[in-house]
Fold this protein.
Amino acid sequence: MSSFDDIYEKILQYPTIILHRHTSPDPDAIGSQAGLARSLSEKFPEKRILCAGENDEGDLAWINHMDEVNAEDYKGALVITTDTANTPRISNKLYDQGDFLIKIDHHPDVDPYADMSYVDPDAPAACQIIVDFINAENLPMNKEIAYPLYAGIVGDTGRFMYPETSAHTFEVAAQLAKTGIDITEIARNISDVTFAQAKLQAAVLDYMTVDPSGAAYAVLTQDELKKLGVNFEQTSVTVSTPGRIKDIIAWNVFVEKPDGTYRVHYRSKGPVINHLAEKHDGGGHALASGANAKDMDEVKQIFAELVDVTKRYKEENE
Ligand code: AMP
């Protein structure tokens, strides 16, 4: 793995730096990209610093907007991806048209695709790594830079709840809060839902099947989404809903896509589930992963595998 100093050396060398993040972005993807871009723009006003993506921000446009980029921009450019474990997940496929590619991430390094990488799977959010980088290299920090970074940390730690959250996470959060950002506004932007989304969360609880092992799943169909007037991107708010129930240890939420295949969400309070997601065109963190299923048969198979892992976990921990 490269050091922060190695990455900074590269940044110094390039007049154009283009930042990419993952598709179906969450606050950590957009926040890490925006925070780094804003700090670099402030430090190097003479450089072109661009945020690239497929304009798939959806309800997260309050964090940042993408810049227009084209193949010309990539000539002699440095490209940096944040929060993106593998190449199929990089939003905007121009990323490989640059001169040099750097990956900054907190997912397990299953696809070391870049020329230079800084990957720390123990960090709860890519945004925490970006703050550490900014501090290590004495880069600017202010309210505009802190805003997206704080959003990413709140998002990926589940509001400072998930196990990778550490004392250092709170130090970083305190540093960001001191810039004067409105932490209540950010937390509300992340956690408030529309009435239709709340009804979809209720539907998850209604349709949920709970296995005696503590594994649970729910399927949200296109019909259900249409009935409630919720679009595909807005369904992510349902993913944490089953986890609020004490007896549920690990769960899947399956969301039907318009083409009849399924987006799969895996979440866990203990059993490691990313190796399961990897078997179904997916991956992610030990306790939070995503994948894809082509039909209901694969949906059933995925849940059977989750039950298996959860059973074993329960036996080992009883
Ligand atoms: P999600 O369930 O979509 O919120 O994703 C949970 C975590 O898994 C996030 O960190 C994603 O970056 C990661 N992830 C989701 N889908 C995939 C995929 N198809 N391949 C690799 N990682 C994924």
Summary: The domain at 4-190 is CATH 3.90.1640.10 (inorganic pyrophosphatase (n-terminal core)). The pocket of adenosine monophosphate is lined by residues 22, 85-86, 89, 107, 239, 265, 281-285, 288-291 (CB under 6 Å).
